[in-house]
Amino acid sequence: MNVLVCGGAGYIGSHTVYELIERGHNVVVADNLVKGHREAVHSAAKFYEGDLRDALFLDKVFKENKIDAVIDFAAFSLVGESVTRPLKYFDNNVYGTIRLLEAMNRAGVKKIVFSSTAATYGEPESIPIVESDSTVPTNPYGESKLTVEKILKWSDNAYGIKYVALRYFNAAGAHISGEIGEDHDPESHLIPIILQVALGKRKQIAVFGDDYPTPDGTCVRDYIHVTDLADAHIKAIEKLFADNTSAVYNLGNGKGFSVKEVIEEARKVTGNDIKAVTEGRRPGDPSTLIASSEKAVKELGWQPRFNTLSQIIETAWKWHSSHPDGYKK
Ligand code: UDP
Fold it and tell me: E strands within the chain?
């Protein structure tokens, strides 16, 4: 199959490109490299540098390649920044995808897998979260992704573009080879920051709040390995070709770990003390987010293979310890 991966130089995108190539698919990557890394793109993928908001760029990509399906990861994803700069997020995440859908329509490409998020739910009404729960995002990032989900629904209705939207919980870990991994600037995610402490690149990890209504008072999240996410995207494409029906799925391990538990596990994996200090709560953080992925297990035949926290942290450690400065030499 010929797959166009938009945002294929980013964290989850680059891992999905590896997985597609390992399974024998032809991959075309489109990325503006604002956040992505050229070095993260598998050498067997055809690479185009450009922005989804540029219609001429997209037409060129679709004209030069026979594309069967699109996977769209291209988006900004910093929750905190989205609160202070919402228009930047709506412009890139919503307008970019509208342009992509228009170009797909012009090219007659009718299948898309869309990178959505648990942030579409906002404060959960119950745990574990199921896809039919109410979606009330508490930040513009989640709102931008939910808006695209709605646009996808109406584009299916009007143009017959079939979609699968995948709502990820906390993406973590790295490719088992240690060749590609997570590299954000600035880094704001828990596991990479903890590992930067273990590497001596930071003095300590700040624990954002220990007065939440959870067993140890720190926030509980559902960490899911990036290669398991990649696998779900490929299964989602296969599903679209099998039944031509749009759908939304949660992707998580179904198990929650507190910030303190993650730090403790990283101490075991790295053999480092990893100094932690408690600070105040980070605004907008729900206390507990845990997915029910039963629907994806049942309908996609998906099953996370990295289902322990230690496996996830071990692969992240392999990447960070061999690339302490990320993709920078
Ligand atoms: N967190 C923390 N210190 C940090 C970064 C994150 O205590 O330096 C906490 C954060 O408050 C949340 C959890 O770790 O409860 C996971 O945060 P992350 O940013 O990795 O993912 P999010 O859940 O926001 O998508």
Answer: 2-6, 26-31, 46-49, 69-72, 111-117, 162-168, 170-172, 205-208, 220-221, 223-225, 247-251, 257-258, 276-279
Q: How far is the CA of 207 from the centre of ligand 1 (A)?
A: 8
C-beta of 187 in contact with ligand 1 (< 6 A): no
pLDDT of 80: 86
Ligand 1 atom index nearest CA of 289: 23
Nearest atom within ligand 1 for CA of residue 259: 14
List the Cα angle 203/205/208 in 5-degree steps. 145
pLDDT single digits (tens) 302-313: 999 999 999 999
pLDDT tens profile 98-127: 999 999 999 999 999 999 999 999 999 999
Q: Which residue in 141, 168, 223, 249 is the catalytic one?
A: 141
Q: Sign (positive/negative) of CA torsion 109, 115, 121, 124?
A: positive
